[in-house]
Q: What sequence folds into this?
């Protein structure tokens, strides 16, 4: 039983739990997540009749790559129009910033450019300041230690990484006092690999020495297989 | 040696999101003091068609702003998010009273947008 401090790695009956309801043979494994955060609103239907949009793929569209690509000097494939677009953009920038080009620009356009550039720099530095905050760095470091660790039931198949010992050591004293090491190990027992996908500083109180960081992590697991999800060897009646 | 059915394991992938609370100790080191992590739902929206608005950066911000001010926030300006962007800072303006909110949203592996920060803006 975890006392005091808040430690929740909710799995809805997940790692090591006997309440697991939907074991699976599928590669993409998930459980229904609970709604949280301000995005949850009661006045929105979870079962909207609108058609779901296809998941956005972060890779560029294949058609764009295949239709207009050619191999560069170093052998890399890149869009054919890329060089021309870039050179055109460079020419435009040179024209804008060169003295002759500058003379032709009106003062208002130049002012607008400075404002836009300034805004970009301010925003970039603000974002960088947030991602470079020591609290976010600590979170990244913690996940780095997790990357070379595997849970107590996930260490086979030649994996020789350590357990989550170091990750446990890096937790605060209060949290370690609240969670015995055995409970911590059990939480990550089936995790073969865990990595941080993104971390964002939500809020920080420097005076109180408290911070909150939003994270998204990816886990590769060795899930205990329940009887219903065994690999199927079914035969039609004629083959019997 | 063949493994028995009870020992068999299935390789799987899962994505989790949540919040870590950190405290700075006496040595000035930030340490994780609490965790609240939940699994992402990568099925309901993508395959079940539930709550498609969660994949819309503008609608998610709109709902968050409405929850913040405790009444709906209609927005008529589209978000400046590029189609493939996964992290956006922008200002949401509610059309009824012109109240503005600075929103920081990130896209999750599930395709949903999540509001990391929302605060009143001038």
A:
């Amino acid at each position: 039983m975890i006392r005091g401090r808040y430690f929740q790695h909710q799995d809805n009956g997940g790692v090591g739990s006997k309440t697991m309801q939907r074991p699976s043979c599928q590669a993409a494994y998930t459980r229904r997540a609970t709604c949280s955060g301000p995005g949850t609103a009661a006045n929105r239907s979870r079962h909207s009749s609108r058609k779901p949009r296809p998941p956005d793929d972060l890779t560029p569209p294949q058609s764009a790559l295949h239709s207009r690509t050619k191999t560069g000097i170093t052998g890399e494939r890149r869009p054919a129009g890329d060089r021309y677009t870039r050179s055109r953009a460079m020419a435009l920038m040179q024209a804008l910033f060169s003295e002759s080009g500058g003379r032709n620009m009106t003062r208002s356009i130049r002012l607008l450019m400075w404002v836009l550039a300034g805004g970009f720099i301010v925003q970039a530095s603000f974002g960088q300041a947030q991602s470079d905050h020591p609290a976010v760095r600590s979170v990244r470091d913690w996940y780095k230690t997790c990357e070379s660790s595997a849970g107590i039931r996930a260490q086979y198949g030649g994996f020789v990484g350590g357990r989550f010992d170091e990750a446990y050591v890096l937790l605060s004293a209060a949290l370690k006092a609240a969670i015995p090491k055995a409970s911590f190990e059990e939480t990550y027992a089936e995790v073969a690999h865990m990595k941080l996908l993104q971390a964002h500083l939500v809020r920080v109180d420097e005076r109180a020495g408290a911070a909150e960081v939003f994270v998204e992590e990816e886990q590769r697991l060795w899930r205990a297989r329940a009887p219903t999800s065994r690999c199927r060897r079914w035969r039609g009646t004629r083959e019997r | 040696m063949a493994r028995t059915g009870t020992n068999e394991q299935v390789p799987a992938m899962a994505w989790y999101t949540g919040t870590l609370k950190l405290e700075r100790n006496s040595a000035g080191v930030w340490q994780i003091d609490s965790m609240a992590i939940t699994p992402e739902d990568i099925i309901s929206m993508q395959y079940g068609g539930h709550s498609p608005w969660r994949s819309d950066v503008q609608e998610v911000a709109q709902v968050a702003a409405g929850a913040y001010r405790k009444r709906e926030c209609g927005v008529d300006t589209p978000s400046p998010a590029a189609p493939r962007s996964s992290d956006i800072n922008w200002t949401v303006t509610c059309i009824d009273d012109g109240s503005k909110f600075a929103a920081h949203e990130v896209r999750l592996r599930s395709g949903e947008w999540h509001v990391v920060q929302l605060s009143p803006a001038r």
About this structure: Chain B touches chain A through 72 residues (CB under 8 Å). The two ends of chain B are 68 Å apart (CA to CA). DSSP finds one helix and five strands in chain B. The helical segments of chain B are 57-69.
